């Protein structure tokens, strides 16, 4: 009896062992609580992320519930943007209260707005501050992690990356996600910053040799599951963004292909399940936000023009049942399940 009481106390208060072999990247405007619900219906094992949320929003927003609701879609990380120590400490506590498994600091976003708020990629200029930020997030009950780039500006420089990780490692961090290209803070857009600076996976391989105990998750340019599987032979884990944003149904292959789960069967009930979840929220939340995790498939799959205009019409009228029927028809016609 005593043993079971001790075990459950341990389960409540200690960090859980979690696989980060396949992670869905944080994406603003996309990895909302709704998207994460859909992703979880499609894959039991993928590690999920919230969108980046500024610490001030997290602490003071009246809408916090809507923005960071977790609804037991674990394993999942809450990503924050910020550099104020007290705010980061509070953010960590909020993540625990909302049952997140991890709190992640964004040190990769190059947008001008984010630079103005003194967070995101510009923090890579101040490695000591980033270390202090990670230390502020650290807590016995949640894993504090980092998502960074290789460096800043046009030129790749391994020494810069190594010195940055040298400093961060002093915090005792155990998981780092690396978007394996530089961020360019001036002259190109956030979109450009996801394609123009060249990728370099070798830097991540190299740093892993120096820090074998840190889990390094590779991110950037992984555009199919075969590539993800091949990279897993050399890296601790992979993080995939746009591939899933453009077609979340790819996730239904992940449990089989990456986690080698047999008997994984996902059928058209995915859409029914998802709609059962969002229907009670129509009227309380924007219809676009509720549907956005599914809308991108119309853009990534050819010959969907008719569907796109119908969906627009049904969305204007908030006709959720017709939208559901249309999506099921589309998904069956294009053989997505
Ligand atoms: C629409 C969009 C929004 C993004 N928002 C975030 C974000 O909130 N936080 C973050 O760390 N990265 C963000 N990213 C970057 C992704 O997490 C990822 O690092 C990048 O897309 C590279 O991975 P990929 O090549 O697999 O897409 C965003 C990317 C996209 C496409």
Summed up:
By secondary structure, the protein is of the alpha/beta class.
What topology, given as strand order, has the largest sheet?
A: 1-8-7-6-5-4-3-2
Estimate percent helicity.
40-55%
Q: Characterize the largest beta sheet: strand count, sense, and whether it forms a barrel.
A: 8 strands, parallel
Query: What is the overall pLDDT average?
Result: 92
Q: Quickly count the helices.
A: 16
CATH homologous superfamily label of the largest domain? Aldolase class I
Poorly predicted ranges (pLDDT <50, ≥5 residues)? 1-13
Using the CA coordinates, give the radius of gyration: 20 Å
What series of H and E elements makes up the topology? HEHEHHEHEHHEHEHEHEHHHHHH
Shape: globular
- Count all strands and give the number: 8
> What's the architecture of the largest domain, going by CATH?
Alpha-Beta Barrel
């Amino acid at each position: 009896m005593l043993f079971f009481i001790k075990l459950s106390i341990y389960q409540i208060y200690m960090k859980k062992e979690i696989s980060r072999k396949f992670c869905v990247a944080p994406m603003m405007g996309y990895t909302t609580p709704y998207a994460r619900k859909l992703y979880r219906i499609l894959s039991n094992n993928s590690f999920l992320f919230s969108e980046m949320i500024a610490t001030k929003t997290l602490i003071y927003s009246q809408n916090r519930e809507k923005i960071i609701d977790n609804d037991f879609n674990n394993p999942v990380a809450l990503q924050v943007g910020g550099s104020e120590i007290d705010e980061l400490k509070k953010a960590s506590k909020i993540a625990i209260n909302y049952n997140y498994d991890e709190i992640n600091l964004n040190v990769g976003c190059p947008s001008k707005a984010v630079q103005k708020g003194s967070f995101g990629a510009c923090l890579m200029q101040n490695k000591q501050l980033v270390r202090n930020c990670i230390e502020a997030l650290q807590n016995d009950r949640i894993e504090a992690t980092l998502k960074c780039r290789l460096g800043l500006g046009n030129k790749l420089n391994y020494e810069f990356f190594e010195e940055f990780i040298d400093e961060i490692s002093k915090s005792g961090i155990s998981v780092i996600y690396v978007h394996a290209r530089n961020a360019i803070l001036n002259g190109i857009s956030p979109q450009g910053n996801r394609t123009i600076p060249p990728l370099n996976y070798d830097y991540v391989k190299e740093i892993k040799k120096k820090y074998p105990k840190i889990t390094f998750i590779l991110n950037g340019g992984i555009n199919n599951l075969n590539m993800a599987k091949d990279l897993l032979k050399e890296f601790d884990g992979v993080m995939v963004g746009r591939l899933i944003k453009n077609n979340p149904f790819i996730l239904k292959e992940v449990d089989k292909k990456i986690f080698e789960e047999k008997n994984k069967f996902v059928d058209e009930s995915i859409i029914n399940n998802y709609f059962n979840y969002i229907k009670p929220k129509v009227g309380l939340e924007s219809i676009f936000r509720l549907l956005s995790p599914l809308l991108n498939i119309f853009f990534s799959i050819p010959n969907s023009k008719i569907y796109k205009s119908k969906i627009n019409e049904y969305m204007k009228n908030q006709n959720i049942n017709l939208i559901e029927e249309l999506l099921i028809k589309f998904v069956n016609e294009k053989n997505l399940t």
